[in-house]
């Protein structure tokens, strides 16, 4: 096989950031994705309809000329979020709200501090057919960072899924065998996104031979048995697992600082990275469902028209990308050679 044509795909989880960085991140995503679910964890979180619409306009303004890319906005849940916030957001066309346990990841300090306060909001979201997107980790200081997803699944997510059977739930960027099994065994109102980094890497790629800051993300990379479970999940062709890159750029000097930043910037090569995984697994025929069908179906949105074509062609991921402000980003898989390259798009 020398070419691979897919119905135009979507990215169901990413971070554009804001300001000058939008010129890079929006164009990188729009090159192959028709739509993307945009995360709301800006420095000032996107907590209401007005903020979401203002952010959406900034993204639209950053699209390349002639692009038909459409951002799908999300609401950042906090302890102060009200039922009216949910209803107003839904009326404005915002399809989902994001649950971050406070302190779980970048700019999550303003997020939810107690999940039991959200039951009434989940009821409203069920009524309004607004999806709940969950960063599924506990943040208790006594819990090992490699166990946070499993404990969240066992102690919190299972109860949410059982108590709100009409609430569509996306378990975002799953990283463990436990999460994959939970999603596969749950009712059809539960699905999950899977990132390229969690399919391609495990914790050895973060820690062996020194810490590799550009492979540092949250949830953190897990051991290889979990990586293999995620690979098996996508290879199964199950409609419950779909594409969500969690592409999350940080400037190089911040990623390589003493504290570092969590996030892998994969947008520049996202569809090619997934193609590499699916080819390694011998299931390139399953990529279109994962990338182009299952997410739209779960969100209740029409599948895209048009198509993209990948060609078997070696190319090297850039070592760095220069931003408008003169700083740089080191992309995920920087300097590595991929075997598939996006060569044609025809988006309706």
From TrEMBL:
Enzyme class: hydrolase
Gene3D superfamilies in alphabetical order: Metal-dependent hydrolases
Any one biological process term the GO annotation gives: 'de novo' UMP biosynthetic process
GO CC terms, sorted: cytosol
Cofactors, names only: Zn(2+)
Pathway where it operates: Pyrimidine metabolism; UMP biosynthesis via de novo pathway; (S)-dihydroorotate from bicarbonate: step 3/3
Domain Amidohydrolase-related: 11-309
Binding site for Zn(2+) 2: 98, 135, 173
The record's free-text note on cofactor binding: Binds 2 Zn(2+) ions per subunit.
Catalyses which reaction(s): (S)-dihydroorotate + H2O = N-carbamoyl-L-aspartate + H(+)
In-chain residues carrying the UniProt-annotated modification N6-carboxylysine: 98
Family matches, as InterPro entries: Amidohydro-rel, DHOdimr, Dihydroorotase_CS, Metal_Hydrolase
Keyword Metal-binding: yes
EC number(s) stated in the UniProt entry for this protein: 3.5.2.3
Alphabetical list of SUPFAM superfamilies matching this protein: Metallo-dependent hydrolases
Binding site for substrate: 15-17, 41, 135, 218, 250, 262
Superkingdom to which the source organism belongs: Bacteria
Annotated positions binding Zn(2+) 1: 13, 15, 98, 246
GO molecular function per UniProt: dihydroorotase activity; zinc ion binding
Keywords from the named record: Hydrolase, Metal-binding, Pyrimidine biosynthesis, Zinc
Pfam families: Amidohydro_1
NCBIfam families, per the entry: pyrC_dimer
HAMAP family named in the record: PyrC_classII (MF_00219)
Oligomer status and interactors: Homodimer.
Family to which this protein belongs: Belongs to the metallo-dependent hydrolases superfamily. DHOase family. Class II DHOase subfamily.
Record's protein name: Dihydroorotase
Organism: Candidatus Endobugula sertula
Lineage of origin: Bacteria, Pseudomonadati, Pseudomonadota, Gammaproteobacteria, Cellvibrionales
